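R.M. (postdoc): so does anyone remember the format we settled on? I'll just put the structure tokens first.
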């Protein structure tokens, strides 16, 4: 074994004997072998005794490892010289030690004489000790062999004693179960794990919810406290400036009128009620009368004995409108409190009278005009009417909310702002002219013609910076003109920008349509699409825009909340869906969910909606227009015409693809422009997951409709018998039949 190991490790071979520096005369080979034999004969009984001792110790201690350690100590020291003969076999460096074994040789002879029969005993002589070339490798191999022997002994003991332990970890024993029991066990483990995970998630969610609730309560308490503090501060300020006004006396006087109004319009009114908006138009007209004519009467010489009665009548009429609005209309408006719409008359009245607007309205109608009885007639006493501007903006907002084209009112309102700015500038120019003196310079008003019209003309040329104005002369005139130019630039640019925004918002949809169409046309021209296709696409764009006012209705509906989308869908299509035989008896909520999944598609005249043999993935509801079920060689035969409200393709939603059951069985094309709602099969199946009862109803009705319609065409086809290469002989054309019959008739006549 060691020779193979030596070869494997490529150990160096011992040098030849001629390489030794000292050439002593070696003893004969026979003599060299005799001392070891005598030594072995002498050590044989000692070895047997050592073996007996080892066995005794194994039985007592069960540890062979300790026996091996104790064995060299019990051996006779005479056995030590036995290793000396191996010295001559060592390499060259061990040569000086070679003469050492010669000394104990005489002592070995008596040992051989004492036991002359040792060489002839039953036990063979011990082999010579091995030659070690690499001590480290030898130690490692011995340790490995020692470990393997210990493991072997341990396993033997374990085989004898089943309760003995092993240094290795014993794997757990897998119980032998039946397949059903094993599956049940695994399912129980899975359910237990899911329940544990679910409990953990619920506990975490509960903790998060409790924490969120506590944070929300803290936040609400803080907000409530801050709001109370703010309201308390505002109440203190209002108490100082505008204290609450008691109207008990006026309530008693106005009770008959209030009862009449209750009968006419009700105890409360919705702010978007058209009757209230119509009344607000009168209030806005009265306000415009005050802000336009009162300023003009205050500046220009419009008061005289002839016109004063008319001005007085108009003033009284405008004041009457304001008083009626404050006492009878405003206290009836519904309001929102904590998310609830308050429709109680007394609460609405109390809410209005506690508001800031009521106090401003009372101040705006205070009759300072009575001072004209003591002083001269003037409109300076009506300036307080100007502070009721909130009524005009209220009317503007309400009118925009009910108009179909609100941009028209926005343009009119912006134009009115521009005209009123010019009106104020003309009044200021007349005041400046009076201050400087009429006709005093070339810049001021010269007193000719109608004063208001001439001053308004100057304001237009000045604010819009047209030019051609007379040069100012004095410092006051120069300063006034410079301020006029600066104000004109600012006001005019602001109004022009506002007008641009209003017109841009009004035409935003049309601009988007034009941009989309132009982009599509550029794309078609880039890839050289045929003109016929381009014309059809242009036609589709124009018709879709003219019919719907937009290219995609879903863009508008996506911005609405779900409640609004549901209301629109139910109002348009629920009645049609309830008439479909396939969906009768299904859950109404399922029908509502289906309505929300509908998509609108426009087909041009002659477009095929479905073709025979196509895979049926959609159901169609005709929103507007008509479609025709056609057939024949050139699809020229019209079987039936379906109009708005009809449904087709619903059976294919429930038929499977097996044996071609979901194939279209007819051609359907648009007769004119047709706007159809499409419901896809995928959307229907997504909805049916939440309505199992309706799913059963649809499956049952689908089978009935399929049977009534007849089996698919694929099953009616019979396999052709015989060799497929010899097909059925085609029929003779009609012209050839006619010629052959004609010849037969001619021969028969002959």
């Amino acid at each position: 074994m060691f020779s193979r190991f030596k070869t494997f490790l490529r150990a160096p071979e011992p040098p030849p004997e001629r390489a030794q520096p000292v050439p002593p005369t070696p003893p004969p080979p026979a003599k060299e072998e005799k001392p070891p034999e005598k030594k072995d004969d002498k050590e044989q009984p000692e070895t047997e005794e050592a073996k007996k001792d080892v066995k005794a110790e194994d039985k007592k201690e069960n540890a062979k490892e300790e026996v091996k350690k104790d064995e060299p100590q019990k051996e006779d020291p005479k056995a030590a010289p036995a290793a000396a003969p191996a010295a001559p076999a060592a390499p060259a460096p061990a040569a000086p030690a070679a003469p050492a074994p010669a000394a104990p040789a005489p002592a070995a002879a008596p040992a051989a004489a004492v036991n002359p029969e040792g060489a002839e005993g039953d036990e063979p002589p011990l082999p010579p000790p091995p030659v070690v070339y690499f001590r480290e490798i030898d130690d490692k191999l011995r340790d490995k062999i020692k470990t393997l022997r210990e493991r072997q002994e341990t396993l033997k003991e374990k085989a004898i004693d089943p309760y003995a332990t092993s240094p290795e970890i014993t794997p757990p024993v897998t119980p032998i179960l039946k397949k059903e029991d094993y599956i049940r066990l695994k399912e129980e483990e899975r359910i237990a794990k899911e329940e544990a995970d679910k409990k953990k998630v619920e506990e975490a969610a509960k903790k998060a919810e409790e924490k969120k609730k506590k944070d929300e309560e803290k936040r609400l308490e803080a907000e409530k406290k801050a709001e109370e503090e703010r309201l308390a501060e505002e109440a203190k300020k209002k108490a100082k400036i505008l204290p609450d006004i008691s109207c008990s006396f006026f309530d008693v006087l106005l009770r008959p009128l209030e009862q009449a109004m209750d009968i006419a319009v009700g105890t409360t009114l919705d702010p978007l009620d058209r009757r209230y908006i119509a009344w607000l138009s009168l209030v806005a007209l009265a306000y415009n009368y005050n802000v336009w004519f009162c300023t003009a009467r205050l500046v220009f010489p419009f008061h005289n004995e002839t016109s004063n009665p008319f001005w007085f009548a108009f003033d009284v009429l405008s004041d009457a409108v304001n008083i009626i609005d404050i006492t009878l209309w405003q206290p009836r408006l519904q309001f929102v409190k904590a998310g609830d719409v308050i429709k109680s008359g007394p609460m609405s009245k109390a809410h209005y009278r506690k508001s800031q607007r009521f106090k401003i309205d009372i101040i705006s109608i205070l009759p300072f005009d009575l001072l004209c009885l003591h002083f001269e007639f003037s409109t300076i006493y009506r300036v307080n009417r100007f502070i009721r501007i909130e009524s005009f903006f209220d009317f503007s907002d309400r009118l925009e909310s009910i108009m179909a084209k609100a941009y028209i009112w926005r343009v009119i309102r912006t134009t009115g702002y521009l005209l009123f700015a010019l009106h104020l500038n003309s009044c200021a120019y007349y005041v400046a002219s009076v201050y400087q003196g009429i006709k005093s310079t070339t810049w001021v008003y010269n007193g000719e013609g109608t004063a208001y019209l001439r001053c308004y003309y100057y304001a237009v040329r000045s604010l819009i910076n047209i030019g051609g104005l007379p040069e100012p002369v004095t410092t006051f005139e120069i300063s006034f003109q410079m301020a006029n130019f600066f104000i004109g630039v600012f006001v005019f640019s602001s109004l022009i920008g506002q007008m641009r925004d209003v017109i841009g918002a009004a035409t935003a949809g049309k601009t988007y349509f034009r941009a989309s169409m132009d982009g599509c046309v550029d794309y078609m021209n880039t890839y050289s699409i045929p003109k016929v296709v381009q014309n059809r696409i242009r036609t589709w764009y124009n018709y879709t825009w003219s019919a719907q006012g937009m290219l995609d209705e879903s863009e508008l509906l996506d911005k609405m909340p779900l409640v609004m989308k549901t209301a629109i869908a139910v109002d348009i299509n629920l009645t049609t869906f309830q008439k479909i035989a396939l969906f009768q008896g299904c859950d109404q909520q399922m029908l509502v969910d289906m309505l929300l999944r509908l998509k609108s598609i426009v087909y041009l005249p002659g477009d095929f909606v479905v073709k025979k043999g196509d895979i049926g993935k959609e159901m169609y509801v005709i929103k507007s227009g008509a479609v025709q079920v056609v057939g024949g060689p050139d699809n020229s035969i019209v079987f039936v015409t379906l109009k708005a409200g009809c449904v087709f393709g619903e059976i294919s939603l429930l038929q499977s693809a097996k044996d071609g059951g979901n194939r279209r069985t007819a051609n359907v094309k648009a007769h004119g422009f047709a706007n159809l709602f499409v419901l896809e099969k995928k959307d229907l199946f997504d909805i049916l997951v939440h309505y199992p009862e309706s799913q059963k109803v649809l499956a049952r009705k689908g089978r009935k409709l399929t049977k009534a319609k007849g089996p698919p065409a694929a099953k009616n086809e019979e396999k052709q018998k015989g060799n497929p290469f010899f097909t059925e002989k085609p029929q003779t054309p009609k012209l050839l039949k006619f010629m052959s019959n004609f010849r037969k008739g001619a021969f028969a006549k002959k």
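R.M.: ...and that's the designed sequence above, right after the tokens. Also worth knowing: The radius of gyration is 58 Å. The longest helix spans residues 179-241.
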